[in-house]
Amino acid sequence: MEAHICTSTGLALVSSPVLVLRTAKTSYGPLDPLMRQDGEDRESWSRYDTIGRTLYAADSRLTAYMELLAPFRTEVGQKRRALKPVADFMGMHLDKLWDQVVAEWDEAGNMKATWLPRAFREGRALYDLRFPDGWWVDVESTETISALNGLFPDGFPTASGSRIEHLTLSNLTSDDRVLTTAIASALRDVIELDDGSLPLGIKFTSKHGHPSGRSGGCWAYWMRAKDSGLTELAEVLGETAVEESDDDLRAAMAHCKIKTR
């Protein structure tokens, strides 16, 4: 990928990747993410969503699977934390109580605790995509963070109602969707690059880290053409079933402490 500092905005840019991977439900296909509407509660949005459609992809199978499974891990974690008052009342360590509950659920055939149902895998596929030529905002670079601070001279909005005066990388990777989607919206709706083009979206690193020897690179692609009723420019190059035997899927499940059948 080629790198460039935009002379009109100061943003750090990278050129389009040749090939990316995306997991999606086969019933929807790889190019039909949720349409976000003005006035919605943004806490349910993904990190760099804007009004319209935002498509997420990764540079490796393992990163794509980690992005897919992380919410499932979060759901399991929420169930576990909900048992804390019970553990305290019983005078037990939470881990011990949770292990007992999971063992009982597994024995009873309940797959909600730490199991990934087969239907979860069979209803999804891994797609090879190619994005159109263009520039992406490298949101984690020093130059971009500096330029973003100039875009919000009055500070950055947050879910708490307060404002952040100076943006840092931790803010850009936070779970505050009011903040991160406001930044994404400004980049999509306000910015024009020095060559007269509009940014395709945001390039970022998965918050789950990067696999050894790989970058953990992710892309949030704003589907401007499709939102405008035009032919989508992103191409689907291939489709692969999500198999239980997939080494990268198994590695992601191990990292997320999830099993499958």
Helix content: 25-40%
Separate helix tally: 9
Quaternary organization: single chain
Question: Could you tell me how far the N terminus lies from the C terminus, measured between alpha carbons in angstroms?
Answer: 39 Å
Write up what this structure looks like:
The strands form four sheets. Strands 1-2-8-11-12-5-4 form a seven-stranded mixed beta sheet. A three-stranded antiparallel beta sheet has the order 3-7-13. A two-stranded parallel ribbon has the order 6-14. α1 (61-81) packs parallel to α9. The chain is of the alpha+beta class. It is 34% helix and 23% strand. It is globular and about 60 Å long. The mean pLDDT is 84.
Topology:
Layout: E1 3-5, E2 12-15, E3 20-25, E4 35-36, E5 52-58, H1 61-81, H2 84-90, H3 94-107, E6 115-116, H4 118-122, E7 124-130, E8 135-138, H5 142-151, E9 156-157, E10 163-164, H6 169-172, H7 177-189, E11 201-205, E12 217-222, H8 224-227, E13 235-241, H9 247-256, E14 259-260
Parallel strand pairs: 6-14, 8-11
Antiparallel strand pairs: 1-2, 2-8, 3-7, 4-5, 5-12, 7-13, 9-10, 11-12
Helix pairs in contact: 1-9
